[in-house]
């Protein structure tokens, strides 16, 4: 079901009962971009990966939120599903509200357009939202307005000499209005300061004869004067005004109210490769992400105590790489023996159908995720002796996957653990290498060939991580390369490099302003091809052929000290590419 600002409140009320009876919820999101900062590398720590998400991805917006609610009927042993596709856009509550700025990544916008995303609908009818702090600020603003209106404790603003003639002319017209038989009078358009003075003068001169209201007409704020009624009539008007303000607050809170209901429900929430979705949900609808990785894990678990990532299940040993881990491919694979997708009872006007593919629409992707979860869960049950069927959301078979989130770009970290210590893979075979800018992959190949080759994760133009294929060669590398003298390159043990990075990060730093291009416009985004796992990484095998003609080649492009290339008048960071362009958020 498509949900916009026009029908959101109706759907929100409906979901009260739907969420209460749900067995589990599946979610998904679509964004205006993925990353504007440094890319994650294969051997980052989970904390470093989180920091790159927090600083490089949160300036983009979640513009579509998908929710699929699955409810199991134990008598029919069948699920029903209701799916919702919410358009999300931070339209300001009023002219004094914060006007949100956000980033877009051209490749992400182009991809959404190619999938039929309706940006006109987003901007015109997207559902607004407020964080808890934003809601409290708006509530206080309205309460302060009530106190002023009830007590009449307005601070008197002296009328500037230049505005006195205009104010007298306005008051003269209002005096004529009081004497007339008209019930209302629309004043001309004035700036905010003059409007404030008009309200002040009416309160001082005609407190019991005129009431004023500000209204937006054709995008402009106008002041309308009404003659006051008797005491009962004015009390009723005030009651209606406050009820309208209450409704306005509800509309301004918007989708945040739904996310709070989901959090309060305590239901199992299922996603596919859902770490980025969760970061955006928390940052956009609850409050800024904490700097501390440990605090982040605690915050996520506090809001959503039961999470399962279907990518974690699909990559687990029980499936032995028998199914792909990208959502669309997984969905197709689970339709073939020995797997089977469940048959669900569809609710009219509230459900998707397998007959119509709407991939990359957030609601449909949430629906697919829910079906994949049921199919994977039932397969886990079928592998047991005796067979367990059905495997429901609270089954003990799912306990190993609970509250673990996929962190796919890290080569040796299977997941992060929200309720305990993360896995701690041994990285003693990994070295940090510093080398000249002129070096290419063949130079690193030649360096590690005698030791069985290495998996290289490129960091900058002059640094990389190298993970030895043969871990028994660590001592030889330490003896010959790390301790050996060379003016061309230097090596550090991984743990020593991490210690120096942590020491550097613990030092206070001055804020760095965003770079501004020569034409005065900031260029905070960049289009990256092949940002999937290993896009900047190279597997250097000991049998890899050498190409002397390219080894040690120098760059022909102009380059700054920070590794930026000048190309077509724009600056972009040079990347080592070893595979073709693909969608960067493949799940």
UniProtKB/TrEMBL annotation:
UniProt similarity note: Belongs to the CAF1 family.
UniProt name for this protein: Poly(A)-specific ribonuclease RNA-binding domain-containing protein
UniProt-listed SUPFAM superfamilies: R3H domain, Ribonuclease H-like, RNA-binding domain, RBD
Ranges of compositional bias, category Polar residues: 551-562
InterPro entries the UniProt entry points to: CAF1_poly(A)_ribonucleases, Nucleotide-bd_a/b_plait_sf, PARN_R3H, PolyA-riboNase_RNA-binding, R3H_dom_sf, RBD_domain_sf, RNase_CAF1, RNaseH-like_sf
Region annotation Disordered: where it falls in the sequence: 496-587
Recorded superkingdom: Eukaryota
All copies of domain Poly(A)-specific ribonuclease RNA-binding, residue ranges: 420-499
CDD domains for the chain: R3H_PARN (cd02637), RRM_PARN (cd12428)
Gene3D superfamilies per the UniProt record, alphabetical: 3.30.70.330, Ribonuclease H-like superfamily/Ribonuclease H
Signal peptide, first to last residue: none
UniProt xrefs under Pfam families: CAF1, RNA_bind
């Amino acid at each position: 079901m498509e949900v916009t600002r026009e029908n959101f409140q109706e759907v929100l009320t409906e979901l009260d009962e739907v969420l209460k009876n749900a067995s589990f919820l599946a979610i998904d999101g679509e964004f205006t971009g993925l990353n504007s900062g440094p890319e994650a590398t294969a051997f980052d720590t989970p904390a470093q990966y989180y920091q790159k998400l927090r600083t490089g991805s949160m300036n983009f917006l979640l513009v579509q939120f998908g929710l699929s609610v699955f409810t199991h009927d134990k008598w029919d042993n069948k699920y029903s599903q209701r799916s919702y596709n919410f358009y999300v856009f931070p339209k300001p509550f009023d002219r004094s509200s914060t006007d949100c700025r956000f980033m877009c990544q051209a490749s992400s916008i182009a991809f959404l357009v190619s999938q039929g995303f309706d940006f006109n609908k987003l901007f015109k009818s997207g559902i607004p939202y407020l964080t808890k702090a934003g809601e409290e600020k708006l509530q206080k603003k309205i309460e302060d307005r009530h106190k002023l209106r009830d007590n009449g404790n307005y601070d008197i603003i002296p009328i500037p000499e230049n505005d006195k003639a205009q104010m007298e002319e306005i008051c003269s017209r209002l005096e004529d209005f009081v004497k007339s038989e008209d019930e209302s009078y629309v004043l001309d358009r004035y700036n905010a300061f003059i409007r404030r003075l008009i309200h002040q003068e009416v309160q001082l001169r005609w407190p019991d004869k005129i009431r004023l209201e500000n209204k937006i007409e054709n995008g402009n704020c106008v002041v309308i004067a009404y003659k006051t009624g008797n005491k009962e009539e004015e009390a009723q008007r005030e009651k209606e005004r406050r009820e309208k303000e209450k409704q306005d607050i509800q509309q301004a809170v918007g989708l945040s109210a739904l996310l709070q209901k989901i959090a309060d429900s305590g239901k199992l929430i299922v996603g596919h490769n859902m770490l980025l979705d969760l970061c955006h949900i928390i940052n956009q609808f609850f409050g800024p992400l904490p700097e501390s990785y440990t605090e982040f894990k605690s915050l996520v678990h506090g809001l959503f105590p039961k999470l399962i990532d279907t990518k974690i299940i699909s990559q687990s040993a029980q499936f032995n790489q028998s199914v792909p881990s990208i959502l669309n491919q997984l969905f197709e694979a689970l339709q073939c023996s020995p797997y089977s997708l469940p048959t669900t009872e569809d609710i009219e006007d509230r459900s998707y159908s397998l007959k119509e593919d709407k991939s990359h629409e957030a609601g449909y992707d949430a629906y697919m995720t829910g079906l994949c979860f049921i199919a994977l869960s039932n397969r886990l049950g079928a592998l047991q002796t005796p067979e367990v069927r059905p495997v429901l959301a609270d089954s003990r078979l799912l306990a190993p996957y609970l509250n673990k989130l996929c962190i796919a770009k890290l080569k040796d970290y299977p997941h992060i653990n929200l309720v305990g210590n993360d896995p701690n893979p041994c990285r003693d075979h990994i070295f940090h290498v510093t080398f000249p800018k002129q070096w290419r992959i063949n130079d690193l190949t030649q360096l590690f060939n005698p030791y069985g080759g290495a998996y290289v994760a490129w960091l900058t133009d002059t640094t990389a991580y190298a993970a030895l294929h043969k871990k028994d060669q660590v001592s030889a590398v330490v003896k010959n390369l790390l301790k050996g003298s060379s003016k061309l390159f230097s090596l550090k043990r991984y743990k020593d490099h991490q210690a120096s990075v942590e020491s550097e990060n613990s030092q206070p730093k001055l804020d760095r302003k965003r770079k501004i291009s020569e034409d005065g416009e900031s260029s905070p985004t960049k289009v990256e091809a092949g940002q999937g796992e290993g896009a900047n990484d190279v597997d250097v095998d000991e049998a890899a052929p050498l190409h002397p003609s390219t080894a040690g080649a120098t760059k022909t492009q102009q380059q700054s000290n920070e590794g930026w290339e000048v190309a077509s008048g724009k600056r972009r960071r040079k990347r080592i590419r070893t595979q073709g362009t693909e969608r960067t958020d493949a799940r």
